[in-house]
Specification:
The protein has 17 helices and no strands. By secondary structure, the protein is mostly helical.
């Protein structure tokens, strides 16, 4: 089912006669998740740029408004590229992929070589492979490990991100599954090698935790690994470039998700936001909306980091809920509502994968709502359950209001829009 709606469309199909309401919730959960992911990555890139400056100015005290200014530049520059340089986006994404792979291997080499060059020793094998530092307050190391898996969503990425471009690439029914597989293979291999290398480059974990608690821990790790502010800056630039291009990709994903909801009359002012600009050949109104909402979230960051974290922290839970809304009905309907495609799994394997996926999602939705550390206070509380529940109530109220007008995912006729891929139906 290659469609820019992605999991929103899938949930509408796999749930059969309940597809309208399942698809509606899946679509909104998915969009809200991607919007928060966009704001989160823009904040990370903003904090990273400030850290680059702070690396050469030891007396500089980072303030939240410093990060906010950088946040605004990153947000609107990414928006402008998506709006006005649509033809250049595939090339930029290729550059991002190149810098991701190249940057990982350069970082590995630098972190492996520089401690020796500077006459320092690498971290011990025990530190990297055996020692366990649990400063969370939880007594169970196993639970802490599971709670820490939240970082994997940022390291590997969520599986539906490429699906939202299905109507803009050739042969999406074959190429989208390949892209998802490549995303996980590349993400797993590079992340594993990268994390091992920077662990060996750490000489003082306490300093990393102390400096990282303020804004950007990676800067402290790179400074220890390279032994200089210049070396840290060089490695930060290598991670900054693909992260900035990732912001562009997140704009593509979030805007396409909202656009597909709008064209199915699932949003306010759907006729306005469902338009595709004939000049720029993209859903310009949806892109601008994402930029405005992202800016609003940035303003929240200036007022309260806790409130900002409450919103963006629900990204993983919301997107994962949208996947469950598609996978669980597919399992319960015995996979009867989906036409087999290029990579259709045999019955036994398909059921096993669907069961494991559903159980995994259900378990980790609960785990990711636990506080990250004990004891719990207002600044350290995990507000994922509150935000997810509150936003779900908002979506439910909107469903009650708009369900009569909501038409569900629709096929787009190729004659209506020449930018669509030939088999993106």
């Amino acid at each position: 089912m290659p469609t820019a709606a992605g999991v929103y469309h899938w949930a509408s199909i796999t749930a059969g006669r309940h597809g309208r309401i399942c698809g509606f919730f899946a679509g909104w959960w998915n969009f809200l998740g991607w919007l928060f992911a966009l704001a989160s990555v823009c904040q990370i890139v903003g904090a990273q740029t400030v850290s680059m400056y702070a690396a050469f100015h030891p007396d500089f005290v980072t303030q939240q408004w410093h990060v906010f200014v950088s946040f605004l530049v990153i947000t609107w520059l990414s928006c402008g590229i998506v709006l006005f340089a649509n033809r250049a986006v595939p090339f930029l994404e290729s550059i991002g992929g190149f810098f991701t792979i190249t940057g990982v291997f350069i970082t590995i080499i630098v972190c492996a070589a520089m401690p020796v060059v500077n006459g320092k020793r690498h971290a011990s094998n025990d530190f990297v492979w055996r020692d366990w530092v649990n400063s969370t307050g939880y007594s169970s190391n196993g639970f802490v490990f599971l709670l820490g898996m939240l970082n994997g969503a940022y390291a590997v990425g969520t599986p539906d991100i490429t699906t939202h471009l299905a109507e803009e690439i050739p042969r999406p029914s074959m190429n989208i599954p390949k892209a998802i597989l490549a995303q996980f293979i590349i993400g797993f291999v590079t992340t594993l090698l990268y994390i091992i290398s920077i662990f060996y480059g750490i000489s003082d974990l306490e300093t990393v935790l102390e400096e990282g608690s303020r804004y950007f821990p990676l800067a402290a790790i790179y400074r220890q690994a390279t032994g200089s502010a210049g070396g840290a800056l060089g490695l930060l630039i290598l991670s900054f470039l693909p992260l900035f291009i990732a912001c562009i990709g997140l704009y593509l994903t979030a805007s396409r998700t909202f656009w597909t909801l709008a064209r199915d009359k699932a949003t306010p002012f759907s006729s306005f936001f469902s338009k595709v600009s004939s000049r720029y050949r993209n859903p310009a109104n949806a892109v601008l909306l994402c930029a405005i909402l992202c800016t609003v979230l940035g303003c929240i960051y200036v007022g309260s980091k806790t409130a900002f974290s409450a919103f963006v922290g629900s990204f993983v839970v919301l997107t994962t809920l949208s996947y469950l809304t598609a996978i669980l009905p597919h399992l319960l309907s015995r996979r009867a509502n989906v036409t087999p495609g290029w990579f259709w799994m045999p019955a036994a394997m398909g059921y096993i994968v669907n069961v494991i996926s559903s159980l995994y999602i259900a378990a980790f939705i609960v785990i990711f709502c636990f506080p990250f550390a004990l004891p719990v206070g207002v600044p350290t509380m995990n507000y994922n359950s509150l935000m997810t529940g509150g936003l779900t109530l908002f979506v439910a109220a909107f469903w009650i209001w708009r369900h009569k007008d909501y038409v569900g995912p629709q096929q787009v006729r190729l004659a209506d829009n020449a930018i669509l891929a030939k088999d993106a139906i």
